[in-house]
Design goal:
Blueprint (H helix, E strand, L loop, with lengths): L3 E4 L5 H4 L4 E3 L3 E3 L9 E5 L5 E7 L4 E7 L7 H17 L9 E6 L8 E6 L2 E6 L2 H5 L1 H11 L6 E4 L16 E4 L6 E4 L2 E4 L15 H10 L4 E5 L5 H8 L4 E6 L2 H14 L6 E5 L2 H7 L6 E4 L11 H18 L4 E7 L6 H15 L3 E8 L17 E7 L1
Parallel strand pairs: 1-4, 9-10, 14-15, 14-17, 15-16, 17-18
Antiparallel strand pairs: 1-3, 2-6, 4-5, 5-6, 7-8, 8-9, 10-11, 12-13, 18-20, 19-20
Helix pairs in contact: 2-4, 5-6, 6-7, 9-10
Length: 392
């Protein structure tokens, strides 16, 4: 029998609307012996079944894995992962020229606390909850079983994503297989993927379609890719026939990867230069040489408490770009901060445009792609926001 968590009267409404989180303040009673990561049965104040989920210490006390009273076993996880895999196939993301995609996007795939990115034949799995960590080996086998032979290795990378208070002493490593090929393909372009030491799972999969859009605008332009990380936008700009591409990041390791990725795709790399430098300083000292600028910074706000400073950061960054870019230039500007909503980000960009005194038009409003789905019952899953702007 699973341990039971009972909710207070009036606290079941969100579950009836299929929201997958139960907050600690909604709990009426639970077993004293409950351990973090345990699978629990959630009932209302009358004892009626509501959901099954993973218990966790903190504000979000339960992450729901099923609203049906079913066995949570290998067959359950395999079915969920097979559904996720089928969606990516239907979206035509699994092709001979594209083997980089997100297989699982947490709540968007009814697997809260779990992220899985695929690079070639390797799936890189991250647990953001103790519950998913506990079943990691079962999940690894379910990935192999669900993906029709396309995955042969599963790498577990959760050292930095699990709750630090859980004291799990987790180390990254392969759960199944051990593929040492670090090159995968996105829309016909090759990339070295550093899933061992790189940020996130090793690559920013969520910008795939936005990189392709940038390629469309790159012909004949001088492109500046700020916060370039592994150079995704730079490589697409090169294929788009940009006149020159400059990549900037404060990390020397990121710059090395950017150079390697450019060289992996182009014999003539003379159009590309990379700089290890602070982005704000580089922008301030740069001349007005660029007519396409990419602003894709790391999250300025990882929680609501940092919101004010984040808005100031986005405003300052975009203001510098507006002042520097050539007449008729294009700016791709993004926020990946979940704590900053679309309206707040757009207001920051509007403020920056007004401060610069330039006339600015919105050409595109960008967001995360189809392999980062958002459950309609969990709007918190929307995090990536972007604008493509023309500056007259």
């Amino acid at each position: 029998m699973l341990p039971v968590i009972q909710l207070q009267k009036g606290k079941a409404e969100s579950l009836h609307r299929f929201h997958p989180w139960i907050f600690s303040g909604a709990i009426r009673q639970m077993p004293e012996t409950l351990e973090e990561g345990d699978l629990v049965r959630v009932v209302d104040h009358k004892g009626e079944f509501l959901a099954l989920g993973h218990y966790q210490i903190g504000s979000i006390a339960v992450r729901v894995v099923s609203f049906d009273n079913v066995a949570i076993d290998l067959a359950f996880w395999t079915k969920r992962l097979a559904e996720a895999y089928a969606l990516r196939k239907h979206c035509n993301l699994i092709r001979h020229d594209n083997d980089i995609y997100r297989l699982v996007h947490g709540e968007g795939d009814q697997l809260p606390g779990l992220v899985i990115d695929v690079y070639g034949k390797t799936a890189v799995m991250q647990a953001h909850s103790v519950g998913m960590h506990v079943v990691r080996q079962t999940l690894a086998q379910a990935i192999i079983d669900a993906c029709e032979g396309s995955i042969s290795s599963v790498y577990y990378k959760s050292e930095t994503t699990l709750p630090y208070k859980a004291n799990l002493n987790q180390e990254n490593g392969f759960l199944i297989g051990g593929d040492d090929c670090d090159v995968a393909m996105e829309n016909g372009l090759k990339f070295h993927i550093d899933w061992l030491r790189g940020q996130k799972t090793g690559f920013f999969v969520d910008q795939r379609e936005n990189r392709r859009l940038l390629e469309h605008y790159s012909r004949g332009r001088n492109v500046l890719n700020m916060f370039c990380y592994t150079g995704g936008f730079s490589v697409y700009a090169m294929r788009g026939a940009a006149q020159c591409v400059h990549s900037v990041d404060s990390s020397a390791k990121a710059i090395d990867l950017t150079r390697a990725n450019v060289a992996l795709n182009f014999e003539d790399t003379a159009r590309h230069e990379a700089f290890t430098e602070d982005a704000f300083k580089f922008l301030e000292t740069a001349g007005s040489n660029y007519d396409l600028i990419v602003l894709d910074p790391p999250a300025f706000a990882k929680h609501k408490g940092a919101l004010h400073n984040a808005i100031k950061g986005y405003t300052r960054l975009n203001n510098i770009a507006f002042r520097k870019i050539r007449k008729g230039g294009i700016i791709f500007t993004f926020s990946c901060s979940q704590a900053v909503n679309k309206e707040q980000f757009r207001l920051a960009v509007f403020t920056a445009a007004a401060q610069s005194g330039r006339h600015v038009r919105i050409l595109h409003q960008l967001h995360q792609p189809e392999d980062h789905p958002i459950s309609i019952y969990h709007p918190e899953g929307e995090y990536l926001k972007g604008l493509v702007l023309e500056v007259e």
